[in-house]
C-alpha cells in the first residue's frame, strides 16, 4: 500500500492538468499514489488523466458527475489508500521536494495533523509573479486559522488520514462515502474544514519552510464574486458558531475584519478600487485588530485601494507593488 495519496480534483482542466500531473510524477518521495477525480468535465480532462495513468501505474482516475471541489476531494479521500493525504488542484503545481518534506515533518511531529507550506503565485502561463503566501509556521491557534488561514490554499496541505477521520460525517442523503469537506459549500469549503478540525479535535497545524506549492492566480475577475465569497464565509461562521460559542464571541469581529481586508486586496489586484475602499471601510469599522496586529499590510492595502479608486488602472503597477510590500 502506498504511504501517501495525492488527490487531484479536476474539472475542465485540460489546459493546466498536464503540468500539474508532471509536477506530481517528479516528487522525490516515491511511495505515493495519485487519485485524479474527473468531476464531470466536458473537455479533454478525462483523456489527459487516462493517458497519464496509463504511463504511470501510481496514477488512478475516477470519473463522476460534477459535485464541485469539495465533492471531488471527498471522492478522492474515499479512494485513498495512503496514511497521509495531500491535495493538489488541477491548475496548481508541487515542487519536487514537497511530499518528502511533509512526510518527514509528520513522521517527526506525531501531534501535527496538518502539515502545510508557503506558496508562490504563478500566472496563467505558469510563471511566478513575485507574490507569495508566506504563512505562520508554528504556534498556530484556532484564532490564527480563523483570522488568517495559514494554510492559504487547497494545494498546500498534507494531512494525516486519522485526522481527517475524526471530522468525517455522512449526511442522510449520502449513500457512498463520508464527507470531510462540506459539499454544500462552493466557496469557503477549505476554511470550514480547517476550522472544524481546529475546534473539534486535538490535532495541531504546523507549517514547513519554503514555497513548496505554486498556486495559480487568475488575473481576471478577481473581485467579481466578492459578495459571494463574503456570503460563503458568513455561512461558515453561522454553521460553526454553535460548536464553540465563546470562541466566536471573542474572535468573530476581528476575523470578519481580516476577511474583508483580504477581499479588498483581491479587489485592488483586479483594479476595482471603489469596491476595495468600501470593503476596507467595513473591515476597520468591524474591528481595529488588523490595524493593530498587522499595520503594514493594513495601511498598504488602504493606500493601494485609494490610489486605484482615484486613478483607475494607471497606477496598477504601483498599487500591486505596495501590496507586495506586505504580502497576504
What is shown here, in short?
With 328 residues, the chain is of the alpha/beta class.
Name the features:
single chain, 328 residues, alpha/beta, Spore Coat Polysaccharide Biosynthesis Protein SpsA, Chain A, nine-stranded mixed sheet, globular
Overview of this protein structure:
- The mean pLDDT is 92.
- Helix 10 runs antiparallel to helix 12.
- The protein folds into two domains: 4-216, Alpha-Beta Complex (Spore Coat Polysaccharide Biosynthesis Protein SpsA, Chain A); 226-324, no CATH class.
- The chain has 328 residues and is α/β, with parallel strands linked by helices.
- The protein contains 13 helices and nine strands.
- It has helices at residues 17-25, 45-55, 68-79, 98-108, 142-148, 161-166, 189-200, 226-240, 245-269, 273-286, 289-293, 295-311, 316-324, and strands spanning 4-10, 32-39, 59-64, 84-87, 93-94, 112-122, 128-133, 158-160, 204-216.
Tell me which CATH architecture of the largest domain applies here.
Alpha-Beta Complex
Order of helices and strands: EHEHEHEEHEEHEHHEHHHHHH
How many domain modules? Answer: 2
Strand proportion:
15-25%
Fold topology:
Blueprint: E1 4-10, H1 17-25, E2 32-39, H2 45-55, E3 59-64, H3 68-79, E4 84-87, E5 93-94, H4 98-108, E6 112-122, E7 128-133, H5 142-148, E8 158-160, H6 161-166, H7 189-200, E9 204-216, H8 226-240, H9 245-269, H10 273-286, H11 289-293, H12 295-311, H13 316-324
Parallel strand pairs: 1-2, 1-4, 2-3, 6-9
Antiparallel strand pairs: 4-8, 5-9, 6-7, 6-8
Helix pairs in contact: 5-9, 7-8, 8-9, 9-10, 9-12, 10-12, 12-13
Amino acid at each position: 500500500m502506498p504511504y501517501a495519496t495525492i488527490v487531484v480534483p479536476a474539472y475542465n482542466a485540460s489546459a493546466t492538468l498536464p503540468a500539474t500531473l508532471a509536477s506530481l510524477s517528479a516528487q522525490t518521495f516515491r511511495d505515493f499514489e495519485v487519485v485524479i477525480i474527473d468531476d464531470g468535465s466536458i473537455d479533454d480532462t478525462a483523456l489527459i488523466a487516462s493517458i497519464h495513468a496509463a504511463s504511470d501505474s501510481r496514477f488512478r482516475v475516477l470519473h463522476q458527475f460534477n459535485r464541485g471541489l469539495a465533492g471531488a476531494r471527498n471522492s478522492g479521500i474515499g479512494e485513498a489508500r495512503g496514511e497521509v493525504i495531500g491535495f493538489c488542484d488541477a491548475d496548481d503545481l508541487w515542487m519536487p521536494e514537497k511530499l518528502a518534506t511533509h512526510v518527514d515533518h509528520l513522521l517527526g511531529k506525531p501531534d501535527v495533523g496538518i502539515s502545510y507550506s508557503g506558496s508562490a503565485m504563478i500566472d496563467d502561463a505558469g510563471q511566478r509573479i513575485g507574490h507569495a503566501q508566506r504563512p505562520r509556521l508554528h504556534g498556530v491557534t484556532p484564532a490564527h486559522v480563523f483570522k488568517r488561514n495559514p494554510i492559504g490554499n487547497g494545494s498546500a496541505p498534507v494531512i494525516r488520514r486519522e485526522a481527517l477521520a475524526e471530522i468525517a460525517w455522512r449526511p442522510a442523503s449520502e449513500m457512498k462515502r463520508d464527507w470531510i469537506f462540506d459539499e454544500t459549500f462552493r466557496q469557503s469549503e477549505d476554511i470550514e474544514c480547517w476550522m472544524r478540525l481546529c475546534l473539534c479535535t486535538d490535532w495541531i497545524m504546523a507549517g514547513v519552510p519554503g514555497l513548496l506549492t505554486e498556486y495559480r492566480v487568475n488575473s481576471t475577475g478577481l473581485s467579481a464574486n466578492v459578495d459571494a465569497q463574503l456570503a460563503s464565509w458568513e455561512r461558515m461562521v453561522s454553521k460553526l458558531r454553535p460548536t464553540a460559542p465563546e470562541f466566536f464571541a471573542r474572535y468573530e469581529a476581528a476575523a470578519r475584519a481580516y476577511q474583508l481586508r483580504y477581499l479588498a486586496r483581491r479587489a485592488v489586484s483586479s483594479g476595482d478600487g471603489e469596491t476595495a475602499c468600501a470593503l476596507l471601510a467595513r473591515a476597520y469599522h468591524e474591528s481595529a485588530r488588523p490595524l493593530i496586529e498587522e499595520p503594514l499590510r493594513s495601511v498598504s492595502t488602504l493606500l493601494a485601494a485609494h490610489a486605484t479608486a482615484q486613478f483607475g488602472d494607471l497606477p496598477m503597477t504601483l498599487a500591486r507593488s505596495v501590496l507586495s510590500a506586505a504580502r497576504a
